[in-house]
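[09:14] KT: can someone run the structure on this one? pasting the chain below
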Amino acid sequence: MRNTYYPQRKAEYVTQAQMRTMDKSNMVIERDFTFGVEQTQSEAQQEDIKAVDVKMKLMTPKRACELIEALVPPELVFHRVPIATSEPEPEPPEPLGNSINAIGGELPVRRSPAPKPMVTRIFGSVSTMDILDSLKAVMAEDDEGARVVLGAESIGIKEAANEELGIEADRLKAVGNYNIEIRPRGSDPIRRIVSVRPQETGL
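[09:31] RB: done, C-alpha cells below
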C-alpha cells in the first residue's frame, strides 16, 4: 500500500473523519486479491479456447481402437538393404545305427541333419520406434486419427526372441513377416503384420 498503490494514486488512506461518516454495516474488511489485476477480454477468450481444446483432445480407448482398425492396413511394409551371404556348406550326416544288407552283413546308416532355415540378414534393423513412426504417419492422414496417442510402450513384437532368426525384443534384423501388437492405452491389443522386404539396389 505505502510503497506501491499510494504513490501511484491507486489507493488512499482513510482519515478518521471519513471513518466516522462511513456506513460500516455493509462493509467487508478483508483483502481484495483481485485488486490491481486486470484481465483483458482476449486473455479470457484464450483461456476458454484452451479449455475447449483440452476437451476435444480427450478420446475414449474404444474410439482409438476403432480408428486404428480402420486406418492402419493389415500389413506394414519396410524395405531394408539385405546383407549378401554365401550358401552354407552342408553338414556331414550323423550316424544313426546299423542295418542288415542283402547278404546278412551290417551296414552303418547315417541320418542327414535337419536343414537350418535360410535367414536373410539386413543392414540396420526395423525397431519398434520405426514401426511407431510409421503408424503415426498413417494416423496423421486423418484429422481424428491424428489425436490417437501412441507411445513406444504401445508397440510389441509377438515373435519369440531368436538371435539366429534375427528377432530381438524391440527390433527385427532379417527379412520376413512378423506379428506385432498395437496396444492403445486402456484397450485390447490390435494385431498387425510387419513385413521386412529386401530393398533393390541399383548396379
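[09:33] KT: thanks! Residues 80 and 104 are 58 Å apart (CA to CA).
[09:34] RB: yep, looked fine to me
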